[in-house]
Design the sequence.
């Protein structure tokens, strides 16, 4: 009996010992998981907030073991390591600990999407936007070299955390002048502050109301979640506001979207109200009037005021020459406003206003000009009849800025009566014979004002590799665009001609012949070689000569092939070339001393092109053919660098903040008039529309890409902008959020009138 008991005791002891060893072996590792806030960040960034400490509590070494990841939320989301995943990183001696830090890259394989399964959420969502709202546990387990568990089940090895939704946001909105008719401009002068103690991504909802029946709203389905709250007051940037003022993201009533796009907002009193939308699109800010801006007025600009001829005037002239002039309407853009002069014949005792209202046939005369407020009606225009009365009107419009004018831009109607008068002719020497004795007599022969004709063909080209380079640093997630504005220098040296090789016709632009003074001498101790004279130098001239500076003698529009003709324009000057020698102000040769030249220059009346700096000598009665001449595009090259600027990845050794293999697109929403069709590497055959891709490519080297032949922006048109879009790479070990950003060029680079700063005769 005793013997049997001893045997049973031995067997039981051995069994208990074996069981103890199994239990000890099965839980030989303790795991401590630490997760630090913030938690509402992309999943790959959450890894950087994580550290795992593994402690070997057994007497045996843990060799070639592995860790497994398990995340579970109370919203049904489960993310866990694949059953086939095994990463032999555990080598822990008895009684020691090893810590794995996400910021050091120790957990890269565990958080790699290829090694995980996702339930209740997609990998795209968590890697771009982070985990949804909910309560979560982040757990790790240890496996031995055979894949068996050697740490306890959850909740051991777990860290609990919560992601809270946005509960409430206060919105403060203010709209500042100027109050444009172009809706897209309001992203720049609408100030929006969001105040909340919560963190997370939100979207905005705009509600724009006018007292004229206009009502625009953000589409219910538009939820970009492009604004990040971080628990502190946030001033929403113009870039982040811009998509909400994009017509494709809005609906309207009262006036169609198409009409507002084409004509702008009609005059009236407006208010912009903004609310914030959180998860699932629900509103997390108060209803109106909370979040509403101040009331602001969009007023139609008054039409031009007529200056000359005076209403009811009787004009007596020896030639068919009248200068029609008018004012620039207050508030109108001089660079983009087009003026159309219309003249109609009046019947006896006919009311001029009724004549314009009832006119159904083409007017007696009609001509349109850009950026000028006068037209010279000359001998080549339809002849005015002696004793006949004519009515005239000027119509202003601005299609680029969508400016609203009162009375559709139509000025008042004025009239004048034409009374011809024979002009004293040009004295001509005539030889007469009387009684076989030669005598010389002067006879007055009727003549005209001296005229000239200048023609040519205008081409354009880009500066190519000589373009200045602007640099933009564009973070893939959340960045500020930094533009470095270099000293832009014209490409052609003084006196150099521009090759026509590679140049293309420049059609449909306004060009003028302008009287220009050149100075060749010394100015304040510095040598000036045939530079356009400044105002101080011009001031030293006689008043009649000084008044001629920048005088426009003729204006025309280039044809489809770029050709232009200033046909029989009035040319009142005979002393082109050097006409004054040793000019100095009151004898003050220390200020400046040199020769003054008078020439004609071709001015391109368009903000996107430089004017050719050729000097034209066209004396009265001359006919000049300039041949092919080149106007440079106001262009530059843009270097874009993509880099990390959010999270801790940008300080990780080896990355240095630069990202390669990022696809970058540069595009316009629409192409403004007269912008070269081949800007960037855009296909010139592509018809302008919306979202026009100007250039695209993939970053390489130092995370940079160079876009060539871009056009300097019109500072008066806020819609004239490039946009940058950085897209996540299709392959790679990291996942990035795509980013769109408006790139606005500096205004200070539009002041160069000619291809070169100066030129020689």
Sequence:
């Amino acid at each position: 009996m005793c013997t049997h008991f001893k045997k049973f005791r031995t067997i039981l002891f051995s069994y208990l010992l074996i069981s103890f060893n199994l239990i000890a072996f099965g839980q030989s590792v303790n795991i401590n998981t630490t997760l630090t806030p913030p938690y509402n960040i992309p999943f790959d960034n959450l890894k950087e907030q994580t550290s795992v400490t593994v402690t070997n509590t057994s007497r045996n070494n843990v060799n070639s073991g592995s860790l497994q990841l398990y995340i579970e939320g109370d919203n049904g989301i489960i993310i866990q390591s694949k059953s086939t995943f095994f990463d032999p990183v555990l080598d822990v001696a008895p009684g020691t600990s090893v810590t794995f830090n996400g910021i050091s890259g120790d957990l890269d394989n565990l958080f790699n999407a290829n090694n995980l399964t996702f339930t209740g959420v997609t990998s795209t969502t968590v890697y771009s936007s982070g985990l949804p709202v909910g309560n979560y546990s982040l757990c790790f387990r240890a496996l031995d070299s055979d894949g068996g568990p050697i740490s306890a089940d959850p909740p051991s090895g777990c860290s609990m955390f919560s992601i809270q939704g946005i509960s409430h946001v206060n919105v403060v909105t203010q709209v500042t002048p100027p109050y444009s008719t172009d809706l897209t401009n309001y992203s720049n002068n609408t100030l929006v502050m969001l105040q909340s103690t919560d963190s997370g991504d939100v979207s905005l909802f705009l509600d724009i109301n006018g007292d004229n029946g206009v009502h625009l709203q953000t589409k219910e389905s538009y939820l970009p979640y492009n604004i990040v709250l971080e628990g502190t007051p946030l001033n929403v940037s113009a870039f982040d506001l811009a998509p909400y003022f994009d017509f494709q993201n809005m609906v309207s009533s009262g006036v169609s979207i198409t009409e507002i796009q084409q004509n702008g907002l009609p005059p009236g009193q407006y208010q912009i109200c903004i609310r914030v939308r959180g998860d699932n699109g629900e509103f997390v800010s108060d209803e109106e009037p909370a979040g509403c801006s101040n009331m602001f007025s969009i007023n139609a600009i008054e039409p031009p005021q007529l200056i000359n001829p005076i209403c009811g005037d009787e004009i007596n002239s020896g030639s068919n020459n009248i200068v029609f002039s008018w004012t620039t309407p207050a508030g109108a853009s001089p660079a983009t406003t087009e003026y159309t002069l219309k003249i109609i014949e009046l019947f006896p005792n006919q009311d001029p206003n009724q004549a314009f209202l009832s006119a159904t046939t083409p007017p007696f005369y009609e001509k349109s000009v850009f950026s000028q407020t006068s037209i010279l009606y000359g001998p080549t225009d339809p002849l005015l009849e002696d004793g006949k009365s004519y009515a005239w009107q000027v119509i202003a419009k601005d299609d680029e800025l969508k400016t609203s004018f009162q009375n559709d831009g139509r000025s008042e109607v004025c009239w004048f009566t034409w009374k011809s008068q024979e002009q004293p002719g040009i004295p001509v020497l005539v030889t007469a014979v009387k009684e076989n004795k030669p005598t010389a007599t002067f006879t007055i022969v009727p003549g005209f004002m001296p005229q000239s004709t200048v023609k040519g063909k205008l081409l354009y080209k880009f500066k190519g590799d000589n373009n200045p380079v602007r640099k933009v640093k564009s973070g893939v997630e959340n960045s500020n665009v930094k533009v470095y504005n270099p000293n832009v220098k014209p490409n052609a040296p003084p006196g150099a001609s521009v090759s026509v090789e590679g140049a293309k016709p420049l059609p449909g632009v306004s060009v003028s012949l302008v009287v220009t003074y050149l100075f060749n001498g010394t100015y304040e101790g510095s040598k000036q070689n045939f530079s356009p004279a400044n105002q101080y130098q011009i001031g030293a001239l006689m008043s009649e000569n000084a008044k001629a500076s920048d005088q426009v003698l003729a204006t025309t529009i280039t044809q489809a092939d770029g050709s232009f003709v200033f046909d029989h324009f009035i040319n009142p000057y005979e002393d082109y070339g050097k006409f004054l020698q040793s000019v100095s102000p009151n004898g003050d040769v220390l200020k400046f001393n040199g020769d003054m030249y008078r020439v004609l220059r071709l001015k391109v009346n368009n903000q996107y092109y430089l004017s050719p700096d050729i000097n034209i000598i066209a004396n009265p009665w001359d006919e000049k053919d300039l041949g092919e001449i080149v106007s440079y595009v106001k262009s530059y090259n843009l270097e874009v660098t993509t880099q990390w600027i959010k999270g801790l990845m940008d300080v990780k050794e080896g990355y240095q903040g630069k990202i390669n293999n990022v696809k970058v697109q540069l595009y316009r929403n629409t192409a403004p008039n007269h912008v070269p069709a081949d800007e960037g590497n855009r296909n010139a055959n592509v018809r302008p529309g919306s979202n026009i891709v100007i250039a695209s490519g993939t970053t390489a080297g130092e995370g940079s890409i160079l876009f060539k032949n871009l056009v300097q922006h019109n500072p008066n048109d806020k819609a004239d902008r490039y946009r940058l879009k950085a897209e996540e790479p299709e392959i790679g070990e990291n996942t990035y959020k795509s980013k769109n950003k408006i790139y606005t060029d500096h205004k200070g680079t539009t002041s160069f009138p000619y291809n070169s700063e100066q030129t020689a005769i």
Q: What stands out?
A: The chain has nine helices and 44 strands.
